[in-house]
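Section 5.1 Outputs to date
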Amino acid sequence: MIKTRCTKWFMVIIGLMSVCFGQYAFAVDAKARVLVVRPPEWSTFLSDWVRYRSVDYDVIEVDTFGNPFQLRNRLLELVQQSDAPVEAIVLCGDVLEEIPKNAQAKPANLQRKVITPSFQLETTVKLGPATTPNLATDVLFGDVDDDGCPEISVGRIPVQNGPELKRVLARSIDYETSTNFGPWREEVHVTAGVGGFGFLADAAIETVARRYLAEGLPDRFRVNMTYASLTSPYCPDPHRLNSTYINRINQGGLFWVYIGHGWIDRLDQFQYGENIECLCDPTDVAKFNIEHGPPIAIMLACYTGAIDATVPCFAKQLVTHPNGPIAVIGGSRVTMPYGLSQLAGEMIDEALVRGRDNGDSRPPTLGRVLVNAKRSIWQEDTSNEPSVAEGVPSRLKTKYKSAVEQMAKALSPEDHSLVAERREHVRLMNLLGDPLLKIRQPESLPVQGPGEVLAGEKCTVRVEIPRSGRMSIELRMHRDQLPSDMVSVGSYDGSAEKRDRMQQNYEKANNLVLWSDVIDVDAGGRSIDVSIPQNSKGKQVVWIRMEHADGWQIGTHRFNVKRLRQTSSK
């Protein structure tokens, strides 16, 4: 694992994951064009996907070149000749052909041939000896004006042959056409590697990270967090950490965010007692079995998206797994927490907030979300006012961005440019998966209620129901709180008793539901009374969800619970 200067940056990315998870829907012109690069003999394996995408786009297939500059010239020529906007470029094929495992027995000097190339660029940010001289990027294929920043989204399907290409793209079709509108669509899984900065530092990092996740994500989301730190309530029984977070992801989700160290084909190590285990290695990938709702994986770590490596990178292992994540975004070389946090915040803001604020109900595409986020952090000045959505304070992102930049400057050499670091991550982060993948959003369910309620009384909310059906209602603690019945664990000694306590605390920390019910309702306005527990206080959320054959609606109302002061009588 990389344990150098970039390691101390880990403190920034855990604490400063200014992830404002919000919605943006990009308006795609009718019959915009899509350029699909593939070896000529793979064309027949594209037919199902091309037929499906042709409803919305004109799909143009392009023969691959072994030289990335020749391929880019051909793509730019098609872009310039097009009388319609080009929405995306889909690169079909790994960068390099894999050598069979038994090839070492052959006397000939075997060389890998290029299937569909990527670019290698010199790294511009040098932070410590771990920095590599170059990086691998697909971004330049979408850079129309040669300024280094893409205008067109680019995604790679990292496969070795036509049948594998067909199988991976079929998953995109299944994902978009699925009528499973279950709760997985509001699940966000966060897995974090251990910081290793000591008890006080790690505790402070975790507190700040929870604050970002609590205020940045719209209230409709449920966050499951697994943190490889023995002092955290989000750390399960260490012997079960790997299986615990994978089992949660296997239940489906919209996003899976990993924060921590990484290597080409695996994630970080986790040490507990005398044991050292990998959070996820190639053998663990087989444990993913996400039958419904495979998440988009965002790997905020070094090397996990090394598309030009001679072994399958971790992102490729995930996206080509038959029941793994539906798409993966990962860095091809050493990544830095400030650049990652800025890109992650912009990307998830694009995915979940901005379109809803603008009244656009169409689902954004993953490629457009990523390219817009990259264009945002490329700019010299990224201090644009954030949008207001679903209880997210209007100055939240600006305030946290300022704190992130101050800490980044404090941890960087005097001559280090934060603009250069952000731009490096525009190139470092590659999308493996279908860039046209639609990120579907729920319809809004208008809910109104009081801003403050006394503990032990009822919170009455008014909801406008568009159609009759079954309604799920929950009263939740807000994400910035923990349940009051957490059990003190103390220092870890490996005993079965403490391991059980850690697992219990972990389950409680990830379950903030105070009350729930399912009722049948008719269309129209309706008042709902929710009883507030006597011993509760702080921010709480009424969460309401309705599901139907064509989609689902969600509404939330956040309020504050206060307790009456007890007065002593004389």
